[in-house]
Amino acid sequence: MGLGFIEILKTILLGIVEGVTEWLPISSTGHMILFDEFIHLNVTPEFKEIFLVVIQLGAILAVVVMFWKTIFPFHFKGGFGVDKEKIIMWLKILVASIPAGIIGILFDDYFNAWFYNYWTVAIMLIVFGILFIWIENAHKNKLPKVNDISEITYKAAFIIGVFQLIAAVFPGTSRSGATIIGALLLGISRTTAAEFTFFLAIPAMFGGSAIKLAKFGMAFTSSEIIILILGMAVAFVVSMLSIKFLMNYVKKHDFKVFGWYRIVLGALVIAYFLFFGA
């Protein structure tokens, strides 16, 4: 069966949703699950599960492209060389990746079965929305202790990784939102917290996609391949815009607006499903 025009539009819309919500601390997975309630791709349940994860590759490629000079530790001018500071940064990212990496591999299917539903999404949207507002109020007028990724310790990196684990377990938490909250609690500046969150997403999202692909196999139909490529391409372009917006925004504003957005959205989700049913 060929891929119809409506399915292409749905894929583009989901790519836009992924590109916007992956980097803003409002939960991309949560939004994708919620949008799936209203916009149903005409695909198998197995492919839909992998699509909602692998589409994130488009978003993460935007980070790789935009921050290539910051994250690539090797250079070839005048011969091969290694930037030690960037290697240390990657070691910290790997340390931060340990909690979600280990638990995610061991219990991924369990988390999908028990927590990937609108109730979990709505509750975590509200809970972490309240946390954002509380943290910003508590840290108002306080100067951050850490203003550069190089100043983040391995201990701090691991603690941020624990917050990422919370997001890996409970959809609606927001991976970026959880790690930013963890960083803010440790006295890390908003800009540095956002950057570290972007870089931490690289192994997390590549790893998550690899796990899903390994379980699903590579037996895609031509229509499924088109959906994956199109979704990732749209997510890539929109992510470039979202990242630029967030980095400019946090230089002048706090995260409370995202907290209020999460609370309102979570309340609307609960109200919708209570009145209209799951």
UniProtKB/TrEMBL annotation:
<keyword id="KW-0573">Peptidoglycan synthesis</keyword>
<feature type="transmembrane region" description="Helical">
    <location>
        <begin position="50"/>
        <end position="68"/>
    </location>
</feature>
<dbReference type="GO" id="GO:0009252">
    <property type="term" value="P:peptidoglycan biosynthetic process"/>
</dbReference>
<dbReference type="GO" id="GO:0071555">
    <property type="term" value="P:cell wall organization"/>
</dbReference>
<comment type="similarity">
    <text>Belongs to the UppP family.</text>
</comment>
<dbReference type="InterPro" id="IPR003824">
    <property type="entry name" value="UppP"/>
</dbReference>
<dbReference type="GO" id="GO:0050380">
    <property type="term" value="F:undecaprenyl-diphosphatase activity"/>
</dbReference>
<keyword id="KW-0961">Cell wall biogenesis/degradation</keyword>
<keyword id="KW-0133">Cell shape</keyword>
<dbReference type="GO" id="GO:0046677">
    <property type="term" value="P:response to antibiotic"/>
</dbReference>
<keyword id="KW-1003">Cell membrane</keyword>
<feature type="transmembrane region" description="Helical">
    <location>
        <begin position="259"/>
        <end position="277"/>
    </location>
</feature>
<keyword id="KW-0472">Membrane</keyword>
<feature type="transmembrane region" description="Helical">
    <location>
        <begin position="156"/>
        <end position="173"/>
    </location>
</feature>
<dbReference type="GO" id="GO:0008360">
    <property type="term" value="P:regulation of cell shape"/>
</dbReference>
<dbReference type="GO" id="GO:0005886">
    <property type="term" value="C:plasma membrane"/>
</dbReference>
<feature type="transmembrane region" description="Helical">
    <location>
        <begin position="225"/>
        <end position="247"/>
    </location>
</feature>
<protein>
    <recommendedName>
        <fullName>Undecaprenyl-diphosphatase</fullName>
        <ecNumber>3.6.1.27</ecNumber>
    </recommendedName>
</protein>
<dbReference type="Pfam" id="PF02673">
    <property type="entry name" value="BacA"/>
</dbReference>
<feature type="transmembrane region" description="Helical">
    <location>
        <begin position="89"/>
        <end position="107"/>
    </location>
</feature>
<keyword id="KW-0046">Antibiotic resistance</keyword>
<keyword id="KW-0378">Hydrolase</keyword>
<keyword id="KW-1133">Transmembrane helix</keyword>
<feature type="transmembrane region" description="Helical">
    <location>
        <begin position="113"/>
        <end position="135"/>
    </location>
</feature>
<keyword id="KW-0812">Transmembrane</keyword>
<comment type="function">
    <text>Catalyzes the dephosphorylation of undecaprenyl diphosphate (UPP). Confers resistance to bacitracin.</text>
</comment>
